[in-house]
Amino acid sequence: MNAKIDTIAESGLxxxxxxxxxxxxxxxxxxxxxxxxxxxxxxxVTGRRLGTCDETLALVAAxxxxxxxxxxxxxxxxxxxxxxxxxxxxxxxxxxxxxNANAGADSSHPIALEEITEADWMxxxxxxxxxxxxxxxxxxxxxxxxxxxxxIVLGSAFxxxxxxxxxIYSALKGGDRGFVKSLAREWGPHGITVNAIEPAAMTEAAxxxxxxxxxxRDMFIRMFPLGxxxxxxxxxxxxxxxxxxxxxxxxxxxxxxxxxxxxxxx
Length: 266
What we know:
Elements: E1 18-21, H1 27-38, E2 42-47, H2 54-62, E3 66-71, H3 77-91, E4 96-99, H4 118-146, E5 150-154, H5 158-161, H6 167-187, E6 193-199, H7 204-211, H8 214-221, H9 232-244, E7 255-258
């Protein structure tokens, strides 16, 4: 799913900066990578399998952006180190990290607490919590050197309001909030901002689900004050661009819903 692209809003905001986006083979990660590249950043996109990023690279190239793909499982610290080393070797710096990788289908699969095994828990935690830790620790020296370092975690409204039949993902996403706030306090003296966003977007996976459940789609869409779900590149990606730009350089330690007004009470 590719919405019509208008590059006026973000053009040049991140000119010369270098970004790493994890889990960028599809969906929100892909949209963020496109928007960062359109704003002038050089972008490295990662996936657990290198081939998953081919379409992302093609879309970035079609907009005239600059991107490379790297294979990296964020639950593996050595893989994260290799990816960051490759980025710095290619462009000489790293200014922005967007930790978007999640446990894929596991994170949206309904499961009651009594049915959860320790393996279920650890499989998601290794990507969500270990991934945050690995990316943050490995990137820190480079974000310090940048002088305008940006670290962004992709959270979820599940971490704000909870979700029946999905206690693992809700707990992990709730943990993102404390992680972001703690790093914002610790890293602020180095000029690094740390934030999270909680997006609501019509990804490829969501579109397939709703095509099979049209009544549910219509009911869900009516819940949005703006009357639609977000588009990964133009809506979610641009929010990330704004947080990474000088325009929002004084915003840190925040969890920002990017959801068309859906969760106004949170």
